[in-house]
Write a structure and sequence with these properties.
Layout (H helix, E strand, L loop, with lengths): L2 H7 L5 H13 L4 H7 L5 H13 L5 H7 L5 H14 L3 H7 L5 H22 L6 H19 L1
Length: about 150
């Protein structure tokens, strides 16, 4: 579960506040073309060529077009997408900026959210009562296969 949904389910933010925060997050994303320039993967001319080609196919994303034009590899695009995600403001910070949460409330809710996630992960690590029996049966079958092959 994402932190924003956690806040919504707890009644701390409304659906409208969460949607507004997500929209703000999306608006503040650094464009892939800008990142490609910053990382030295594309020249300004290359970016212009991609944008011109993209205007003819508006349903295609910048990175897809750059790959089709042979200006960028998939690995390079993935690198840019990781950088883009790292630069995205956290939803909690956006909610503070919008006045929906105070800094103190943000810290408190993040701590509770992290505790909940840690408990969920720990619970998912508890072994199933069925798994050991299947594992042992699988090993017994392997041992039998070896014995019959000899």
């Amino acid at each position: 579960m994402h932190f924003g949904l956690y806040l919504k389910q707890r009644g701390i933010v409304t659906s409208e506040q969460l949607v507004a925060a997500i929209e703000t997050q999306l608006k503040t994303l650094t464009r892939i073309g800008q990142l490609a320039l910053e990382e030295g993967l594309l020249s300004p001319r290359d970016v212009f060529d991609v944008l011109r080609s993209q205007s003819e196919s508006p349903h295609k994303r910048f990175g897809e077009v750059a790959i089709e034009l042979g200006l960028m590899t998939r690995d390079e695009l993935l690198k840019l997408l990781v950088i883009q995600a790292d630069r995205r403001p956290q939803i909690a910070d956006v909610l503070v900026h919008q006045g929906v949460l105070t800094e103190e409330r943000k810290r408190r809710e993040l701590a509770e959210f992290r505790d909940l996630r840690a408990k969920q992960r720990a619970a998912s690590l508890i072994q199933s009562k069925i798994s050991p029996a299947l594992w042992q049966r699988g090993n017994a079958a392997s041992a039998n296969d070896v014995n019959t092959a000899v």
